[in-house]
Amino acid sequence: MRLLIVEDEKRLALSLAKGLTAEGYAVDVVHDGLEGLHMVGEGSYDLVILDIMLPGMNGYRVCGALRAAGHDVPILMLTAKDGEYDEAEGLDTGADDYLTKPFSYVVLVARVKALLRRRGPSGGASPVLEVGNLKVDTAARRVFLADDEITLTTKEFSVLEQLVVRAGDVVSKADILEHVWDFAYEGDPNIVEVYISTLRRKLGPTLIKTVRGAGYRLEARA
């Protein structure tokens, strides 16, 4: 899943990004409210972590603008302020949750996971997806093939998740890179092929089809 952090405290933003990346998310970071608004409008994010006190445009206005434009992405607001008025204002503009600084990183991760579970992989769909005899629990991050649980690394699971939520459709290499790594990834794009190869070794060679020149498609076994 792909997250956007909009936070002008650069050390905090980079620390959160590092931790959330280790949790298996693709994370983008910007430090300005207007840039954050533009990023959400142009990208496809599963959740936004949005500070209130931002240059360019404050978090209240960013959140309000996103909701007015019809964006339903979950928003977790962060603020150094404390008080019922601030929380009410944040939630009134359309935020889904609210966290006051200083906060525990463990609590932030728990809030992020709760918001993502609440939304589900397709805006409220079941977190357990089945394609043939493959079952993927996107909330618990567990994979079963028939009756056997398959152990995957964090990145392997994230690549598989991109395929299983769009089972039957072609998913491009660029799309996988963008969601599993991030938009600024500058490494070898063939890294996707490496992970597809590993998934085929673990799940069998016929489950993930290569569509030449287009990408990959997850298909149920006959």
Overall description:
The protein is built from 8 helices and 12 strands. The protein is an alpha/beta fold. The relative contact order is 0.11. It has helices spanning 10-22, 33-42, 59-68, 84-92, 105-119, 154-164, 173-180, 191-203; strands at 2-6, 26-30, 47-51, 75-79, 97-100, 128-131, 134-137, 142-145, 148-150, 170-171, 208-211, 215-218. The radius of gyration is 18 Å and the shape is elongated. The two termini are 29 Å apart. A 5-stranded parallel beta sheet has the order 2-1-3-4-5, sandwiched between helices. Strands 6-7-8-9 form a 4-stranded antiparallel beta sheet, with helices on one face. The chain has a 3-stranded antiparallel beta sheet with strand order 10-12-11.
Care to give the gist of this entry?
With 222 residues, this protein is of the alpha/beta class. Helices cover 40% and strands 22% of the residues. A 5-stranded parallel beta sheet has the order 2-1-3-4-5, with helices on both faces. A 4-stranded antiparallel beta sheet has the order 6-7-8-9, covered by helices on one side.
